[in-house]
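Morning F.,

Quick status update on the modeling queue. The single chain you submitted on Monday has been processed. Sequence for confirmation:
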Amino acid sequence: MAKRLTCDVVVVGAGMVGAACALYAARAGLDVTVVDRGPVAGGTTGAGEGNLLVSDKEPGPELDLALLSARLWARLAEETGEAIEYEAKGGVVVASTPRTLTVLEEFASGQRAAGVTAEPVDADRLAELEPHLAPGLAGGVHYPQDAQVMPALAAAHLVRASGARLCTGRTVTGVLRGTGGAVLGVRTDRGDIHAPAVVNAAGTWGGEVAALAGVRLPVLPRRGFVLVTEPLPRLIRHKVYAADYVADVASDSAALRTSPVVEGTAAGPVLIGASRERVGFDRSFSLPAVRALAAGAVGLFPFLRRVRALRTYAGFRPYLPDHLPAIGPDPRAPGLYHACGHEGAGIGLATGTGRLLAQVLGGQATELDLTPFRPERFEEDGGNTP
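Structure tokens below.
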């Protein structure tokens, strides 16, 4: 007979967002259980690059969340030392033409007004930041607040540091509801877990978990590939990407879109992205996508033409139609809380998301207004959102 568990909060999902929710809820004094059908970081987190970015976000609620999260990541790095491979490397966004540079500088000006450190870089100074960049670029912007972690290590560390009960290899098959509709916990293939609060941190599968509770959350998968090179000396100092990457992030297109994003890692390999396309949960290798990634990377760093690519991997970003995550309580199912739909920014936004949810769970005022992230906002479109 399956053992019945009881706790204060069940977090569904052991990726980075779920791990951060567990950590901050536990620090708020709550008894937490984390449940996932796979291992820790077995989904989108394990297929990510570990980016903690403010540079790609326009002023607004997501940037506010990114700035909060960046501060929290820096504090966690002080606590953990090298355990999460936190690297405050900074980012450099480059423009290939004067027109693109003008658009980039206008974007950066708005970010500065919102609290981002964004330093214009003239064309002749780009080589000081990145000596191996292609010549002839028009200029760029340096973002010293951008950072990186090793995602699988960081997620595992946050779960461990939380002291939460971890139930991996355990599939949630239902959300328990009382006669008045209040959430009472979750049903799994290995027994029920009773709790007055359930946090949906299931990432790309957040819509499926929401449906188990009888509510709609239109999370869609957006596939992306990462190309991994052979280990190299540290030839790329920052996260470097082309200015059109920001437009690709904001795009609603289902078709393949690629823009070069290149960065070195502490272990040596260079990571090359970024591609985006909506193809469902199709993990098939895409030669056009990977060729575009390689060509874009060589365009930024010509020396990569002589470097071997060892492997590529794919992941699915949890995409919501308005490009904002769902964070906070769901009034349609009292006791259900959402922390999903962060698209490609979940690792960077995880700490702020976890902190805000812990404040809600503890009955405290939140540091940021959660109204833009309210999970029921999609009901306002009349049910026509894809």
